[in-house]
């Protein structure tokens, strides 16, 4: 084996090692389900808790966390909103580049006034969204969210049975991550940092 061939061979091994190391260091590994490249969830257009019509375009340049819930929820929704509040604290200064949107699955009870009391109570930067029953149903369908009224025997009123998870969109508005219910704030913050 010639000296020149040894140097070329050694250089190729070194180059291959460097390329592998660079590739491993640069690949984003989400804790949640990677939605990159999916085409679901047409841009929503709903009214916020201040009465302003909002769409996803209003939040371009920010990472958006979308959660479907309702204010009368006894457990899942307030727990998730509390987890998002903690996530924002973990993000520190970067939290200003994140927009949390709470979309009601119960527009009959979650009026603008009710959302205005509930949603910013967790963090004043959070925005509550609502629409007509038909508008909300269309958004639920677009995002593959299940929601149904469940009557409470012996009580007046109802609860909502609904799927719970977080849809995360990057700064361009593209769907990137789905995080299931119960994900720890540290894990949510980890995934959001990868998009900030």
TrEMBL record:
<keyword id="KW-1015">Disulfide bond</keyword>
<keyword id="KW-0186">Copper</keyword>
<feature type="disulfide bond" description="Redox-active">
    <location>
        <begin position="73"/>
        <end position="77"/>
    </location>
</feature>
<comment type="similarity">
    <text>Belongs to the SCO1/2 family.</text>
</comment>
<feature type="binding site">
    <location>
        <position position="162"/>
    </location>
    <ligand>
        <name>Cu cation</name>
    </ligand>
</feature>
<feature type="binding site">
    <location>
        <position position="73"/>
    </location>
    <ligand>
        <name>Cu cation</name>
    </ligand>
</feature>
<dbReference type="GO" id="GO:0046872">
    <property type="term" value="F:metal ion binding"/>
</dbReference>
<dbReference type="InterPro" id="IPR036249">
    <property type="entry name" value="Thioredoxin-like_sf"/>
</dbReference>
<dbReference type="InterPro" id="IPR013766">
    <property type="entry name" value="Thioredoxin_domain"/>
</dbReference>
<dbReference type="Pfam" id="PF02630">
    <property type="entry name" value="SCO1-SenC"/>
</dbReference>
<keyword id="KW-0479">Metal-binding</keyword>
<feature type="domain" description="Thioredoxin">
    <location>
        <begin position="19"/>
        <end position="196"/>
    </location>
</feature>
<dbReference type="InterPro" id="IPR003782">
    <property type="entry name" value="SCO1/SenC"/>
</dbReference>
<feature type="binding site">
    <location>
        <position position="77"/>
    </location>
    <ligand>
        <name>Cu cation</name>
    </ligand>
</feature>
<protein>
    <submittedName>
        <fullName>SCO family protein</fullName>
    </submittedName>
</protein>
């Amino acid at each position: 084996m010639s000296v020149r061939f040894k140097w070329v061979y050694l250089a190729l091994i070194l180059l291959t090692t460097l390329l592998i190391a660079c590739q491993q260091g640069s690949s984003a590994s989400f804790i949640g389900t990677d939605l990159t490249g999916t085409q679901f969830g047409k841009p929503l257009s709903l009214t916020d808790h201040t009465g302003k019509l909002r769409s996803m375009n209003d939040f371009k340049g920010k990472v958006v966390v979308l959660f479907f819930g309702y204010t009368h929820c006894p457990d899942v929704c307030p727990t998730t909103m509390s987890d998002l509040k903690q996530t924002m604290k973990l993000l520190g200064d970067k939290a200003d580049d994140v927009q949390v949107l709470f979309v009601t699955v119960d527009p009959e009870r979650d009026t603008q006034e009710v959302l205005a009391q509930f949603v910013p109570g967790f963090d004043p930067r959070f925005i509550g969204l609502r629409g007509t029953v038909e508008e909300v149903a269309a958004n639920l369908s677009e995002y593959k969210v299940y929601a149904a009224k469940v009557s409470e025997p012996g009580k007046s009123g109802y609860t909502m049975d609904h799927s719970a998870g977080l849809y995360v969109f990057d700064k361009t508005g593209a769907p990137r991550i789905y995080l299931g219910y119960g994900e720890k704030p540290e894990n949510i913050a980890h995934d959001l940092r990868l998009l900030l």
